[in-house]
Write a structure and sequence with these properties.
- 56% of the residues lie in helices and 14% in strands.
- By secondary structure, the chain is an alpha+beta fold.
- The strands form two sheets. The chain has a six-stranded antiparallel sheet with strand order 6-5-1-9-7-8, with helices on one face.
- A hairpin with a 4-residue loop joins strand 7 and strand 8.
- Helix 4 runs antiparallel to helix 10, helix 6 packs across helix 7 and helix 8 packs antiparallel against helix 9.
Length: 399
């Protein structure tokens, strides 16, 4: 009796220790993600394009302007040019990369009427845009400054010149709007494909299929399919679905359609098992009573069995959504890794998870932006779970 009690105590202590270690690890990861990602997380980050728009500007005709008259009480970390009436500071764009941001420009500054060299039209510089490079000159010499050299150096170079031979201005960039839209398209299209197939297969296996060795084999194959690494599905999508979409939808390589088809195949085991279990626990008395009242088997399934197994269907839906949002390996091959701002079903792009993979795969991994995207993924999963739970509660009142 004493030995048994000792073994139980050891088992309980071991369980508590590993539970606490797991909880500490999870909390540590969450804290790291939120601490590093929260400073990058903003509405601009969520709604702006990833690709920057670049303008090459010039200003040489300055006879109508009286330079060196623009006074401004610059703030901390800002550098101001009285000659040009512009204030700059070292900042970060939406993805966390270092930039020189325009924080103020005088209404009478000659920089308000720059010449856009692309179409020879006037361009007005705005607060919040970024200067990547300037080339200025005077009667004796020319000077240039790059964004990597800092805002103070750029202001010093501006003060040396009387003409702006070239200014490279960048607008926007670093946002994840395209990846958010791609992820939502993947979720919707994948569920449209996978849910009817998975639910139909579960209905057949539980309601129609004979309980024999063949059914046992089918269950074994479904379990095996659920254990296949996702990268294998990526190869399958690349060799099967991409050529199919090229022929059927006139795509060119990976696309949202081919990615959704690949994800649909991946999700089938999850959907089938969860729905089949929810069908299995429905009492047989429900079926017998429905049939005794004159309903056909199909009417019994769709009007009695399925409504009562709604929780299992919604669970399968939530798990499927979470799998789509978090999947990256298969989508790298079936969808692509090009971060796009213009999203089409027949075009490639990146989901939020693949966007993180791209940011972390360069020579200088962007931890802050990756953590910000991770926070977005967690929030989307939470909101979708709450939405599905709300639907389940509403429908259960009428079941």
């Amino acid at each position: 009796m004493r030995k048994r009690k000792l073994k139980d105590n050891i088992a309980n202590i071991t369980t508590y220790i590993f539970s606490v270690l797991g909880l500490i690890t999870l909390i540590s990861i969450m804290c790291y993600v939120f601490i590093n990602g929260s400073k990058n997380l903003s509405w601009k980050f969520l709604t702006s394009n990833y690709q920057e728009v670049t303008y090459n500007l010039q200003r040489k005709d300055l006879e109508n302007y009286n330079l060196d008259i623009y006074n401004y009480q610059n703030k901390k970390d800002e550098y101001y040019s009285k000659k040009w009436g512009i204030a700059l500071k070292d900042s970060q764009n939406a993805s966390g990369n270092k930039v020189i941001e325009i924080t103020f420009i005088n209404n009478d500054s000659p920089l308000n009427n720059m010449i856009n060299l692309a179409n020879n039209s006037f361009y007005k510089i705005n607060v919040g845009e970024y200067i990547d490079k300037i080339v200025v000159s005077n009667e004796n010499d020319s000077y240039y400054a790059l964004s990597k050299d800092g805002a103070e150096n750029m202001i010093n170079q501006l003060e040396q010149g009387n003409k702006i031979d070239d200014m490279v201005l960048k607008v926007g960039g670093g946002g994840i709007k395209g990846s958010i839209l791609t992820t939502l398209y993947l979720i919707i299209l994948t569920l449209i494909i996978a849910l009817p197939l998975g639910i139909g297969c579960a209905i057949y296996l539980n309601e129609y299929a004979s309980k024999n060795k063949f059914l046992t084999l089918l269950h074994s194959l479904i379990d095996m399919l659920g254990g296949i690494p996702s990268i294998i599905f990526g190869f399958f999508g690349m060799f099967i679905f991409i050529p199919f979409c090229d022929l059927s939808f006139h795509t060119n390589g990976g696309s949202i359609i081919s990615g959704s088809l690949t994800l649909a195949v991946m999700l089938l085991p999850t959907i089938i098992k969860n729905v089949e279990e929810s069908l299995y626990v429905i009492p047989n008395s429900y079926r017998s009573a429905s049939l005794a009242l004159g309903a056909s088997k199909s009417q019994t399934i769709f009007k009695i069995i399925l409504p009562n197994s709604l929780s299992g269907i919604l669970t399968a839906t939530v798990l499927s959504i979470g799998r789509v949002i978090g999947e990256s390996a298969s989508l790298i091959f079936a969808l692509g890794t090009a971060i796009k701002d213009s999203i089409k079903l027949t075009g490639n792009g990146t989901s939020l998870a693949v966007h993180i993979w791209v940011l972390m795969g360069g020579e200088e991994p962007n931890f802050d932006a990756s953590c910000a995207i991770a926070i977005v993924i967690l929030i989307i999963v939470l909101l979708l779970n709450l939405f599905v739970k709300l639907i389940e509660r509403k429908l259960s009142k009428y079941a």
